[in-house]
């Protein structure tokens, strides 16, 4: 290290460079090189480009750990931001925004703002990237960043488009309104955007389109939601409109524009782009048109195994719903012995989905090859697939069954076992004439050792014991002998078999069954003993046996519904295709829900672009890029024409929409509704915030009627998470008029909030009748502090200074977590982050229920299940910053308890501790 | 999007890590190792793994796992495609994408990764741009660098990123101007026991090596463009021209690149250039079996089939094989049970044959299935689909370039079931 330091301080660039290279090598290996920070940071202004670059690499890695020292480098970047060379400006912005030091947030914000109006599109692109970096460093900056995003979305450069849409998706994906005016431009630029940007834009536009256009799927079942619509209009009007929608569907030209402009991208060399277009067609195109994507998806199967894996998963989902799309490519899904197992099973899945009367015989022949595969896991999957084909296509049920019976004599035990399981399922669907097969299977019992298979056979014999009256008792006899050595699964079925035989053929089997029941009674497994007791009570009559035993036969031998053999990919398309969530079949963090089609399209004129504005921008841009014009023309089909034509048609549409004013208003309403719904869903996915366990009824006085000249106000905390924004505590305010005159225009003014605190006011109350009272909601972001929010409550002619001070218990949102997670998190929040106190507990307060009730009433905490009776755990996170707040109450002897709070927010933690103390000690 | 990247070799060592946002601990890879253990075989490690706080998306290339750490929803193909692009870039820079090459050039690797992603979002992935930013290592340059202390980083700033032809670097100059196109076709096929074709299709690519000065504007036309059923393009190709005239019109990147990939319409019958006669059997209740395979030419359009290699994954019960080859040489790896027969050229006068005895583990049951035969071959100067380049025209520059087209047909995933 000393050696490296010396080299860094040497006057020769070659020595410095050598040192930096070694340091980068250390970083690459994950070794700690943070001690060299002071020596390295000195070289940030080096003239040598390579040294400089490597210093940047180092800075980005360690600045977060060495914040004070990192500040030394900032002035260098600030200077570089003003460099005449655009590449230097861009790279300065890049490094500056990658240094994760909170103190420089204002500097970063300023730099981003400036860069976003830089003349160079490359610098603007980097500004778009910096937006996300700043947002993740300080989400507080959201509003200002949205302004920058709004500005950059208007940018006409293909370089910027992808990056700014990416920023939009990360920072404010719910601000669909920002897209309207840029929608057509994005559609038209798309072909010329770089491939990574294309993917992001296509995914965003898919979501956008689902909120703005009506469904092109004509014959689809429409989910009727009249109740919701009734709010806005009468039934008749609604029906009329529905009819209109159904009869005369014409696609919005903007919807068509998107489909038309994405289609050429199916020819992209980038698999992610092709998949993005495919999912767009799947979610947006009329069903008759979606077929065009199949060919391109099948082409991707020629790629490496990772691409194949994802593409096959998506095809599997598609092929369940729309077989026709992939039927012509059936053979492309044939399995090779060299495919990895995960690819094989996916292909098999698709083949099974595509099976129909016409191709089933070819497919079954193909499946025969697979059954003999050396890859036994795959062979077993094939048997399952045959079972599914057999149930789905009745013509071949018998053929399949025969085939499976042949497999029963296979040498491989896994194959036989899987066949037994599948045959069992198939026989259940049509047991009428399969006595022979059951007999055959009974014989197999001597040789098969796989528990599932043995259990399946026993179940079959029991269920259909009347069809094999001679064999069944004998099977029971044999298995009674081996009972003690069987697997639990098998034991349960032996008991079942015994019970069923006892009920149908007690003469022969009474003793045997009793023997088995006796064995079961002393079995080691709890389940077996339990089942034994249950069966004995039900079937063996005695004086105590209740009314149920009369119905024992009906209970045991009831007709059972056949199991459904379903694809694991069924219904997976409720996740947007091509997403991580679809691949995992569970909602990934940050997944954005695709909304349902709106019933009535929101106003299409929002996408119209003002002609004058357009012209102005164009003259600006033309002036700058005149030179590049000819080549540009070659690649993007002259954008100008497109825009012009769209704006002329737009003015026509404007007129049209004026005519339909009432329905327009209505649709605006509805969009609001949708947005809210999307937002709600989004939030749920991000954290595991639970509903409040209890909502306190206690109200606090805001304004006494005497001091309010007859206007009284109370507030209470409704504990509803984030109605106004995810950092707001919701407060319900009840205003009462105790005068004998109307009070008009009640509203909030003159907010005196500590820095950072924000308030979402309620809408002004126009008029409050005498003796009237009204409750409104407002949101306050207390910034996780117990400071007061002061403001004025005003009426038409008066104003009153009031303030709200939250109990710390209301600055929390309950979360659910397992005991294990709780302990893990607690383990990370020790030392400084832990406060505790010993308190006295009133004797009546020492039961679990009372403790929970008292604690959750005092603070908005979630209850964590606890394995120990004397320890009670609660968890929440702070509303503003989402920091965990873990509360533990551990009851000790002699009416005391240890109260422990673990949190990063030590101030609130200690206040909360103080507030909770009296809660448990008082009666 | 992409938070961090870990490169892991086959023995499970993390030999490189890079973070684009705050640092993620190496321990996140434990979930990957767990999945790897469960998968037994490298090919079966799932490309997407979910862990409590992150998602891991990985690819396996050239004996290296590229494991990326993701925190929020992202199209998995986006990441997969990007990781392959990273591996391609290493290949392009160092001639091979191996652990040694990466370790030897760790500084360049780091500089490349820095340029390719910004805050986890792809920034510069075109090789033309990257090569302007960071020069690839050559022996001469590394010698010169060590003497003069100069560097690999380009001293002039690249302009490629700023032009509207982002795939081509500016100021290209050659003394010999050349443009070469390799039309490479692969036959994917499954042949059944009786020798009839279960499935066959042709996948082709045109790889180009273009060394032309200035800003040449090329157009390439085919005699029979209708053969191409489904095509994917390098971004340089003007889609509209192809749609309307079936001509490939483009300003090329400098150097090597893949111009198009295509699939030949499945309506056309695919010619299968080789046939295999096989007799593989295992005797009941005996610890041996017979193996007898002959390869011969068929529908080869009068060209020689060469570079023939046959690989067979024998059943687990096979202990050893005693064979004689009339041509070429064979090896059997008793650990992974793979038989490889390197045949070479097929001469129709004397068909290559491999036959002999298979020794089975005694007492093991007779294998259910006969193994499939995987065959590789090459045919020079033939595009099996019949695709032919008609002409190449150049606009925008005055010099006369040297032009060349080469055709080659290969076996893709060519499998014979027995």
TrEMBL record, chain A:
Keyword Cell cycle tagged: no
Start and end residues of each AP-3 complex subunit beta C-terminal domain: 636-787
GO BP terms, alphabetized: intracellular protein transport; vesicle-mediated transport
GO cellular component terms, A-Z: AP-3 adaptor complex; clathrin-coated vesicle membrane; Golgi apparatus
A Pfam cross-reference name: AP3B1_C
Domain of life, per lineage: Eukaryota
Region feature Disordered, mapped onto this chain: 629-652
Matches recorded under InterPro entries: AP3_beta, AP3B1/2_C, AP3B_C, AP_beta, ARM-like, ARM-type_fold, Clathrin/coatomer_adapt-like_N
Membrane association type: Peripheral membrane protein
UniProt subcellular location: Cytoplasmic vesicle, Clathrin-coated vesicle membrane; Golgi apparatus
Keywords linked to the UniProt accession: Cytoplasmic vesicle, Golgi apparatus, Membrane, Phosphoprotein, Protein transport, Transport
Family membership noted in the UniProt record: Belongs to the adaptor complexes large subunit family.
Role noted for this protein: Subunit of non-clathrin- and clathrin-associated adaptor protein complex 3 (AP-3) that plays a role in protein sorting in the late-Golgi/trans-Golgi network (TGN) and/or endosomes. The AP complexes mediate both the recruitment of clathrin to membranes and the recognition of sorting signals within the cytosolic tails of transmembrane cargo molecules. AP-3 appears to be involved in the sorting of a subset of transmembrane proteins targeted to lysosomes and lysosome-related organelles.
Protein name, entry field: AP-3 complex subunit beta
Organism of derivation: Buteo japonicus
UniProtKB/TrEMBL annotation, chain B:
Coiled-coil ranges per UniProt: none
Main location: membrane
Alphabetical keyword list: Cytoplasmic vesicle, Golgi apparatus, Membrane, Protein transport, Transport
Bilayer topology annotation: Peripheral membrane protein
Family annotation (Pfam families): Adap_comp_sub, Clat_adaptor_s
Example GO BP: vesicle-mediated transport
Family: Belongs to the adaptor complexes medium subunit family.
Subcellular location per the Swiss-Prot or TrEMBL entry: Cytoplasmic vesicle membrane; Golgi apparatus
Source species of the chain: Buteo japonicus
Keyword Ribosomal protein recorded: no
UniProt protein name: Adaptor related protein complex 3 subunit mu 1
């Amino acid at each position: 290290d000393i050696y490296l330091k010396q080299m860094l301080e040497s006057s020769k660039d070659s020595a410095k460079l050598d040192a930096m290279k070694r340091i980068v090598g250390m970083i690459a290996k994950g070794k700690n090189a943070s001690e060299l920070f002071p020596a390295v940071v000195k070289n940030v202004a080096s003239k040598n480009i390579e040294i400089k670059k490597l210093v940047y690499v180092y800075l980005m890695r360690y600045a977060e750990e060495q914040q004070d020292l990192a500040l030394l480098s900032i002035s260098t970047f600030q200077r570089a931001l003003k460099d005449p060379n655009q590449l230097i400006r861009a790279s300065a912005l890049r490094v500056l925004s990658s240094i994760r030091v909170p103190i420089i947030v204002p500097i970063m914000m300023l730099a981003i703002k400036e860069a976003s109006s830089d003349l160079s599109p490359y610098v603007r692109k980097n500004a778009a990237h910096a937006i996300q970096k700043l947002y993740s460093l300080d989400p507080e900056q959201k509003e200002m960043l949205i302004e920058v995003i709004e500005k950059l979305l208007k940018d006409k450069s293909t370089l910027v488009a992808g990056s700014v849409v990416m920023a939009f998706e990360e920072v404010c994906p719910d601000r669909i309104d920002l897209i309207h005016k840029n929608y057509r431009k994005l559609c038209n630029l798309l072909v010329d955007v770089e491939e990574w940007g294309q993917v992001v834009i296509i995914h965003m536009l898919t979501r956008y389109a689902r909120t703005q256009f009506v469904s092109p799927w004509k014959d689809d079942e429409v989910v009727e939601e009249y109740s919701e619509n009734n709010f806005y209009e009468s039934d008749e009007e609604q029906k009329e409109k529905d009819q209109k929608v159904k009869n005369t569907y014409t696609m919005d030209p903007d919807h068509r524009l998107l489909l038309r402009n994405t289609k050429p991208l199916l020819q992209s060399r980038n698999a992610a782009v092709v998949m993005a277009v495919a999912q767009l067609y799947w979610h947006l195109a009329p069903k008759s048109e979606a077929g065009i994507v199949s060919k391109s998806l099948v082409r991707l199967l020629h790629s490496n195994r990772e691409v194949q894996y994802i593409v096959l998963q998506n095809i599997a989902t598609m092929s369940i719903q729309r077989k026709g799309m992939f039927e012509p490519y059936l053979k492309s899904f044939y399995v090779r012995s060299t495919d990895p197992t995960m690819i094989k099973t996916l292909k098999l899945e698709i083949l099974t989905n595509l099976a129909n009367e016409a191709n089933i015989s070819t497919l079954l022949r193909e499946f025969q090859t697979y059954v003999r595969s050396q890859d036994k896991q795959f062979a077993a999957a094939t048997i399952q697939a045959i079972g599914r084909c057999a149930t789905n296509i009745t013509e071949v049920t018998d053929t399949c069954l025969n085939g499976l019976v042949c497999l029963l004599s296979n040498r491989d035990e896994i194959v036989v076992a899987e066949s037994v399981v599948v045959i069992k399922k198939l026989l259940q669907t049509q047991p009428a004439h399969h006595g022979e097969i059951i007999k055959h299977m009974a014989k197999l019992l001597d040789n098969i050792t796989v528990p599932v298979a043995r259990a399946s056979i026993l179940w079959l014999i029991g269920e259909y014991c009347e069809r094999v009256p001679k064999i069944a008792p004998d099977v029971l006899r044999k298995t009674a002998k081996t009972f003690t050595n069987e697997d639990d699964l098998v034991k349960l079925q032996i008991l079942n078999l015994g019970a069923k035989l006892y009920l149908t053929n007690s003469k022969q089997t009474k003793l045997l069954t009793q023997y088995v029941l006796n064995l079961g009674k002393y079995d080691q497994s709890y389940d077996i003993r339990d089942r034994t007791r249950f069966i004995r009570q039900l079937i063996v009559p005695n004086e105590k046996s209740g009314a149920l035993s009369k119905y024992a036969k009906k209970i045991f031998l009831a007709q059972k519904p056949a199991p459904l053999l379903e694809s694991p990919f069924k219904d997976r398309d409720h996740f947007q295709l091509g997403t991580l969530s679809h691949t995992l079949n569970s909602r990934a963090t940050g997944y954005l829900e695709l909304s349902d089609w709106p019933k009535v399209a929101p106003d299409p004129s929002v996408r119209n672009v003002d002609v004058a504005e357009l012209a102005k921008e164009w003259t600006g841009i033309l002036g700058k890029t005149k030179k590049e014009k000819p080549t540009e023309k070659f690649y993007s089909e002259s954008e100008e024409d497109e825009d012009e034509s769209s704006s002329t048609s737009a003015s026509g549409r404007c007129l049209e929409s004026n005519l339909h004013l009432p329905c327009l208003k209505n649709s605006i309403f509805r969009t609001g509704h949708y947005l809210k719904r999307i937002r709600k869903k989004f939030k749920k996915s991000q954290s595991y915030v639970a509903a409040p366990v209890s909502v306190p009824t206690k109200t606090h006085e805001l304004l006494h009627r005497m001091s309010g000249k007859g206007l009284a106000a109370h507030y209470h905390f409704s504990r509803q998470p984030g109605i106004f924004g995810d950092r707001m505590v919701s407060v319900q305010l009840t205003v009462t008029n105790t005068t004998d005159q109307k009070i008009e225009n009640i509203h909030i003014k003159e907010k005196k909030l500590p820095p950072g605190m924000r308030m979402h006011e309620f809408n002004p109350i126009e008029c409050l009748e005498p003796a009237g009272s009204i409750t409104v909601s407002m949101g306050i972001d207390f910034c996780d502090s117990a400071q007061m929010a002061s403001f004025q409550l005003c009426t038409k002619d008066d104003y009153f200074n009031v303030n709200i001070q939250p109990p710390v218990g209301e600055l929390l949102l309950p979360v659910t977590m397992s005991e294990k997670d709780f302990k893990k998190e607690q383990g990370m929040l020790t030392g400084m982050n832990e406060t505790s106190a010993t308190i006295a507990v009133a004797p009546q307060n020492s039961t679990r229920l009372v403790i929970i009730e008292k604690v959750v009433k005092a603070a908005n905490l979630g209850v964590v299940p606890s394995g120990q009776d004397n320890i009670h755990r609660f968890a929440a996170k702070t509303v503003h910053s989402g920091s965990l707040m873990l509360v533990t109450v551990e009851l000790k002897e002699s009416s005391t308890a240890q109260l422990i709070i673990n949190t990063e927010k030590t101030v609130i933690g200690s206040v909360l501790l103080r507030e909770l103390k009296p809660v448990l000690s008082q009666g | 999007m992409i938070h961090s990247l870990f490169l892991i070799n086959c023995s499970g060592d993390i030999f490189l890590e890079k973070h684009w946002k705050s640092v993620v601990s190496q321990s996140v890879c434990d979930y990957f190792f767990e999945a790897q253990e469960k998968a037994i075989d490298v090919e079966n490690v799932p490309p997407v793994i979910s862990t409590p706080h992150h998602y891991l998306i990985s690819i396996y290339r050239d004996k290296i796992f590229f494991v990326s750490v993701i925190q929020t929803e992202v199209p998995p193909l986006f990441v997969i495609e990007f990781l392959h692009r990273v591996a391609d870039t290493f290949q392009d820079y160092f001639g091979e994408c191996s652990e040694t090459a990466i370790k030897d050039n760790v500084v360049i690797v780091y500089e490349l990764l820095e340029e390719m992603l910004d805050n986890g979002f792809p920034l510069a992935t075109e090789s033309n741009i990257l090569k302007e930013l960071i020069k690839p290592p050559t022996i001469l340059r590394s010698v010169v660098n060590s003497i003069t202390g100069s560097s690999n980083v380009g001293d002039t700033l690249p302009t490629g990123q700023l032009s509207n032809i982002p795939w081509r670097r500016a100021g290209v100059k050659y003394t010999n101007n050349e443009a070469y196109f390799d039309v490479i076709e692969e036959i994917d096929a499954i042949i059944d026991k009786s020798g009839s074709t279960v499935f066959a299709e042709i996948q082709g690519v045109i790889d180009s090596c273009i060394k032309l000065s200035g800003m040449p504007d090329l157009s390439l036309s085919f005699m029979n463009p209708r053969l191409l059923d489904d095509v994917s393009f390098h971004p340089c190709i003007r889609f509209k021209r192809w749609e309307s005239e079936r001509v490939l019109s483009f300003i090329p990147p400098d150097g090597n690149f893949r111009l198009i990939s295509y699939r030949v319409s499945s309506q056309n019958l695919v010619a299968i250039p080789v046939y295999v006669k096989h007799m593989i059997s295992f005797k009941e209740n005996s610890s041996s079996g017979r193996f007898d395979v002959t390869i011969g030419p068929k529908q080869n359009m009068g060209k020689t089939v060469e570079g023939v290699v046959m690989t067979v994954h024998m059943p687990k019960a096979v202990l050893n094989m005693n064979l004689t080859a009339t041509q070429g040489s064979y090896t059997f790896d008793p650990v992974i049970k793979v038989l490889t027969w390197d045949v070479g050229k097929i001469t129709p006068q004397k068909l290559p044959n491999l036959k002999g005895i298979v020794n089975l583990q005694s007492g093991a049951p007779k294998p259910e299935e006969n193994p499939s035969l995987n065959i590789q071959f090459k045919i020079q100067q033939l595009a099996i689909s019949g695709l032919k380049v008609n002409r190449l025209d150049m606009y925008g520059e005055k010099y006369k370039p040297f032009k060349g087209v080469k055709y080659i047909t290969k076996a893709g995933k060519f499998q014979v079931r027995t």
